[in-house]
Design a protein that fits this description.
Elements lengths: L10 E9 L21 E9 L5 E10 L5 E7 L2 E7 L7 E2 L16 E2 L7 E3 L2 E3 L25 E2 L4 E4 L2 E6 L24 E6 L9 E7 L5 E7 L2 E7 L38 E2 L3 E3 L26 E2 L1
Parallel strand pairs: 1-10, 1-11, 12-19
Antiparallel strand pairs: 1-4, 2-3, 2-5, 5-8, 5-9, 6-11, 7-8, 12-15, 13-14, 13-16, 16-17, 16-18
Length: 312
């Protein structure tokens, strides 16, 4: 009685953990800030029904999303499963637009979360041979991971998190050209109505060339970009206000450099009237300056991720 036969099951589950920058529960592949999140811990749980009719959960495996945010569990038997995803440091909250039941729709969030920072969990879904989404039903990233056995893989189980980092501060008049905003001088107030652009260095080559946001300074000269993931960014004023076309050049001005010091000028300009740019600077979670709340624009990051997640 030792003549046994073993067969490898062909079922699989996978897809993507992605940033949901507009918090609508759907991945917008045209939005460069809604890319997949790498190195997220993803857990596969099997849901078993015991003799009393109560479900029990068994952790089968853990993996981490790849550099594109995709994950895959293969060689699975038919049955009921759940996917768990740990909240990344720069995006602690699961999308409001979540649909925790599996609807076989790719590119939408299938998880829910009890509290920010908790693990997000999908609802229970069933894997069965020849009955899984195929072709155009898996048309978002990660959808082709089961191409060798398409009808036996479900590549639509996505999880999304809302990024919570931020960038902002003030565009101000500097009549004495010393590169520092003097809050006691009524002539050194903020400049309203200035268009400010935010660029991201998505490929890590040191050049921030992808426009990811545009804002206009308010009545106090403040601008603000929120719901940002970790990355390297650059702030640009494409056209200075006509009332003050030249960037500060004083001894306290640090051309282009972000020194994490508030009230100092961080702009660099070739000629009067040209665009003004900061340098490319990193934005990382829980590692941003704690500004003096009395400074203009300093308290804009007290919402969302919190003060240490925003560079004002």
């Amino acid at each position: 009685m030792t003549i046994d036969f073993g067969f490898v099951p062909t079922l699989s589950v996978g897809s993507t953990v992605f940033y949901d920058q507009d918090n609508d529960g759907e991945q917008d592949e045209d939005n460069p800030l809604e890319a997949g999140i790498d190195s997220v811990a993803v857990v596969l749980v099997q849901v078993l029904e015991d003799v009393n009719g109560m479900d029990s959960l068994v952790v089968l495996d853990t993996t981490f999303t790849d550099e594109e945010g995709n994950y895959l569990f293969d060689s699975l038997s038919p049955g009921d499963y759940q996917i768990l995803a740990a909240a990344p440091e720069d995006a602690q909250t699961n999308s409001d637009g979540s649909t925790p039941a599996d609807d076989d729709v790719d590119g939408v969030d299938d998880a829910e979360q009890v509290m920010p920072g908790d693990t997000a969990s999908t609802g229970t879904f069933t894997l069965s041979v020849g009955d899984e989404p195929t072709g155009d039903e898996e048309d978002f990233q990660g959808g082709d991971q089961d191409e060798d056995n398409d009808g036996s893989g479900n590549m639509t189980i996505d999880v999304s998190f809302v990024p919570d980092l931020s960038i902002g501060s003030t565009v101000f008049y500097d009549p004495n050209d010393d590169g520092v905003q003097d809050l006691t001088d009524p002539l050194e107030g903020g400049i309203a109505g200035v268009v400010v652009e935010l660029y991201s260095d998505l490929d890590g080559d040191g050049v921030a060339e992808t426009l990811v946001g545009t804002d206009t300074t308010d009545a106090e000269g403040n601008y603000f970009f929120d719901m940002l993931p970790e990355g390297d960014y650059q702030v640009v004023i494409p056209t200075p206000d006509a009332s003050a076309p030249s960037s500060s050049t004083g001894t306290n001005e640090v051309a282009g450099n972000d020194t994490d010091t508030d009230l100092d000028d961080n702009g660099d300009q070739a000629n009067s009237g040209d665009q003004v740019s900061s340098n490319v600077f990193p934005l990382t979670a829980d590692n941003q300056p704690i500004e003096d709340a009395a400074n203009p624009g300093a308290s804009q990051d007290t919402i969302g991720g919190g003060d240490a997640d925003g560079n004002m």
